[in-house]
Specification:
The protein contains 17 helices and 18 strands. The chain is of the alpha+beta class.
Length: 585
């Protein structure tokens, strides 16, 4: 039986259905295209609006990403003193350590010897998420730790403050704390400017001259070692502007390693310590006496034949001449007796006024912090007036004295000391302390102290040095220590046209063979001034010239036995005939 099966009925597309599907697809594509076009239009429109109306990003904010986080400090000639560099920190995440912790602890102890193997093992077993192993690590150390191959140890860059000159000018520069903020010195004083994004890209120029600073510290350190002094201080100051070209305080420290330094060495003896500076005050007293007319003539004489008794107090001379002394001789022989008599004539008001004009009644106005205030007399008795005239009974910083000497020789103008470089023509206005005539007279007298008096060892050929020695006993419990003193020499050069003040102070020097066992300033501090000037004079723009000098022809005839101690260093104006005692009366 044959069965025929009819084929299944197949739906045929209706006429036009295929065309409808294509149309739907076209619509969807058009909608997608329109949405895409709208999106593009929005983006293009937004960019156009930003281009037309948005303000461009300010250049300071762009530059802030390119400059260091802290500005550089440079000397007056642009030499680097402090700068910020990229350093590395090394840390560990204990939870991510995959190696053997005992072995890792052993290798860390060998590579980073700051902790023991046991301490590192305890650190790796701790629940801390992250712990620093070393901050401010040098590249060699980073490479050594990286070679351990432990994924749980991480490395990151961080800024580090670097002082490329190490301990040079440390007390002036100061240092920053661990967070990079100024903590001491000019780093603290200039912290706001050095971290300001708008200004930190421009290095800040200090008044220091790196070459002069190195010479001063070298000579001061050599003297401190030679005389086994407890401390030392020195500076070079521009007499016309008050700029400090070099400032040294010993002992010192390395600002690159503050934690490893002795905290006692952070004290700046130039600005943070006060001293009775002895006979260096005598020229100041003499200048005031000349200024006020108390000393009307260089020939005026004062009785220094015997110690001066004032109540229960007796004033003596260290090198008594046992005769009457005129004004130049008073300073040349550093007579306490004659100076005290002059101060007695000046009186309390005029002496106190002079000290206040010189700024001795307040802290020195310099940019550094932690400045020491003077030890000002509580009561100005007659004896106080006399003793302060030769630097006893009043204590100031070496910076106070340097500023006073600058005004003594620069024409009589006092300028505040500064550690910022002053551009030509922008020197702050000072205040007049002495007249031009008084200043000119004091230049003569200070020069004579070096050519004929106690400061002869400070004379530097061709530099026409003038200055005054000062040796003061150190005060202690129950009085002054007879065998311990502060030796100071305050100088200026060249005296015919002064440019710089140079001051050197040694605290408690011990005599040696070089000084014939003496500890006085003429044998300890004065030679240091000589060497500093010889090393720095030319580099500071003073050309040595042995054919020039101060004209002292009107005062030389007043000197008894006036043969210069340094023959050949003075010009013909100094080589005057020796006159008999009493000349100029």
């Amino acid at each position: 039986m044959t069965v025929l099966v009819a084929p299944a009925h197949r739906d045929r597309p209706r006429p036009g259905s295929r065309h409808a599907g294509v149309a739907v697809a076209h619509v969807r594509l058009m909608i997608l295209a329109l949405l895409f076009a709208a999106a593009i239009s929005v983006i293009v429109g937004r960019l156009a609006l930003l281009a037309l109306f948005a303000e461009p990003q300010s250049s300071p904010s762009i530059n802030a990403m390119l400059v260091p986080l802290r500005g550089d400090l440079v000397d007056r000639n642009g030499a680097p003193l402090a700068r910020t560099i990229d350093a590395w920190s090394i840390g560990v995440r204990p939870g991510k350590v995959i190696g053997d912790k005992n072995e890792l602890a052993r290798m860390l102890a060998a590579t980073l010897p700051g902790k023991s193997e046991g301490e590192y093992r305890a650190l790796l077993d701790s629940e801390s998420k992250f712990t620093y192993l070393k901050r401010r690590a040098v590249p060699e150390l980073v490479a050594a730790v990286h070679a351990l191959g432990e994924p749980g140890i991480e490395f990151a860059r961080e800024p580090q403050r670097l002082y490329p000159q190490a301990a040079l000018a440390a007390h002036t520069l100061g240092y920053v704390d661990f967070d990079g903020k100024g903590a001491f010195g000019m780093e603290l004083a200039l912290d706001k400017q050095l971290t300001d994004p708008a200004r930190r890209g421009q290095p800040v120029a200090l008044s220091l001259d790196l070459r002069a600073q190195a010479a001063l510290e070298s000579e001061l350190g050599q003297a401190m070692t030679s005389f086994q002094a407890r401390g030392a201080a020195g500076l070079i100051m521009d007499v016309a502007t008050g700029e400090l070209v070099a400032v040294a305080s010993l002992p010192t420290f390395n600002p690159n390693n503050v934690k490893g330094s002795n905290p006692e060495h952070f004290r700046n003896n130039v600005t943070q310590s006060v001293y009775e500076l002895g006979s260096t005050f005598k020229p100041l007293t003499m200048a005031m006496a000349i200024e006020t007319g108390v000393v009307p003539s260089m020939a005026k004489r004062y009785d220094a034949t015997a110690p001066l008794q004032v109540g229960g107090f007796r004033i003596r001379d260290d090198h008594s001449q046992r005769r009457w002394l005129n004004v130049p001789e008073t300073l040349i022989h550093s007579s306490n007796i004659a100076t005290a008599r002059i101060a007695d004539e000046l009186g309390k008001e005029r002496m106190e006024t002079m000290f206040r004009k010189l700024g001795f009644d307040h802290k020195p106005p310099v940019e550094l912090g932690g400045l020491a205030g003077p030890l000002w007399p509580k009561y100005w008795a007659r004896t106080t007036v006399m003793t302060t005239a030769y630097g006893h009974g009043i204590a100031v910083t070496p910076l106070h004295l340097a500023s006073a000497y600058a005004s003594l020789v620069n024409g009589g103008m006092w300028h505040p000391a500064t550690l910022r470089k002053i551009e030509p023509g922008k020197t702050p206005e000072g205040r007049r302390v002495f007249s031009e005539a008084t200043s000119a007279r004091m230049r003569q007298l200070l020069r004579l102290i070096v050519t004929h008096g106690t400061g002869s060892k400070a004379d530097a050929p061709g530099y026409r040095v003038g200055g005054k020695t000062g040796t003061a006993e150190v005060p202690g419990a129950g009085g002054y220590k007879r065998n311990q003193n502060v030796s100071t020499f305050a100088a200026a050069f060249p005296m015919d046209a002064p440019r710089y003040v140079v001051l050197v102070m040694l605290d408690s020097p011990i005599g040696n063979a070089q000084s014939f066992g003496l500890t006085t300033a003429g044998w300890t501090a004065a030679p240091v001034v000589n060497r500093v000037i010889m090393r720095t004079g030319a580099m500071l723009g003073v050309v040595p010239d042995e054919t020039r000098d101060v004209d002292v022809s009107d005062v030389i005839p007043l000197l008894w036995k006036a043969e210069p101690k340094n023959k050949g260093t003075a010009v013909a104006a100094v080589r005057a005939p020796i006159v008999a005692p009493g000349a100029g009366e």
